[in-house]
Structure formats: C-alpha cells, structure tokens
Write a structure and sequence with these properties.
The chain is mostly beta strands. It is built from one helix and eleven strands, in the order E-H-E-E-E-E-E-E-E-E-E-E. It has one domain (13-230). Helices cover 2% and strands 27% of the residues. A hairpin with a 5-residue loop joins strand 7 (144-156) and strand 8 (162-170).
Length: 231
Amino acid sequence: MDNSSYTPSIQSISHMNMNRAETGFDRPHNLQITNIWDLPLGRGKQWLANTPGATAIVSGWQVNNLISIMSGRPFNVWGDCGAAWPGNSPTMIDTIGKPKKVGSASTFWYDPYAFAETFDPNNPGVCETRLGTSGFNNLRSAGVFNWDFGLFRDFAITERVHLQFRAEAFNFTNTPHYDYPDNYIGDANAIDQKTGKVTDPGTFMTIQGVQDLAREGIDERQFRIGLRISF
C-alpha cells in the first residue's frame, strides 16, 4: 500500500483491489511557515535609532518562527482474526455503519462501538474465515500544530567579534501532539463472542501517547537559552 515494492497484504487475485488505500504517511494538508525578522528598532533601524538609553536596549533583536500545521496520518483498526487464504494476514475487522469520529483525547477518538471482530455467528469466539469490511488506512489520527519560537540579540563586541544571545521555545504554545489512538480491538475489556461487537471498550480507541517529533519523546514546551560567539 505504501510502496510498490511491498508485498500486498491481500494476495488473492480476486481481492487485489482491496490493497488500494491511503499511504501510511499521507497528510493531505501540510503548511510550513518559516521566517526570520530583524526587528526595526535601534541603531540603523526605522524606530528608536537615536533615543539615548532606549536605543541600547532595543538594538540588535531578531525573531525566528517555525510553524507546522499538518493533517493527521491514516490508520486502521486490527484484530485477531486473519484471512482464510495462505500468505494473507490482514487481520481486518468489521465496521458497523460508518465509524463516527468523536475526536476527543479524553474519551474516544472514534466511536469504539462501530467496530466488531469477525467471529463466526455459529461458533462463538471462533474467527470466521473471511475478510472484514473495514479496509486499510480508512481512519485518520489527530493533526499537528507546532510553533517553535526564537528570540536572538546580537552584541557587537568589536568589528569582528560578536556575541549572540539566544532564547528558544520548542512547542511554544504547549500544544499536545496526539498519536494514533489504541487501534487494536483486542484491547477492549469485553467483546460479544457471537457478534464480535465491542461491549466494553477499555482502552480501545483512546489516545495513549503523543507523536515523536524528534524530541526524545518530550512533547511539552521546552526552553533553551544560550550564548554564541562569532569572530
């Protein structure tokens, strides 16, 4: 599904079209805003260029922003019942109607009662040898809003030597970046053994963590202060 070199999850010729799905890294909307702004204040600038005291305070400041706004990534629910054909194990479950997106990080991301394991109705708790109706990557996780902010100031020690003060805030707005919800139907506390329907969701379809934005698992706002000497 994600790459033409991958082995199809469903290898039955009569069902090959079911491999068509959104890629796991698909994000329909991806807006990246980057800017560096030398504040128009102080020496050689538009405002407060010749005001004693104020000029020394406001000169040399620079603001940096990196803003990311992205759609969530696709995912699908999986369970313990595999496909009947040799070499296939898509573990696809059934959907009951169209799963409703609740979109709550404190309760459920999707309605957990809209999914069911593919049990054989004549043999309670036994997997039926068929594909479920859910499909691949047909649900979408939470989107991302992230703002990294920096405030720098340059001090000219001599013509060649400069000292730069740097204050940076990662995830400046302290916005949570939610990961996929628990998408394993087996994590439900109770499933009807005849119909396969969820009767007690447990952690199924709840948010359990945050996305990895290359910050060693730390998602909360972080501050960094430093000095840089150039010569």
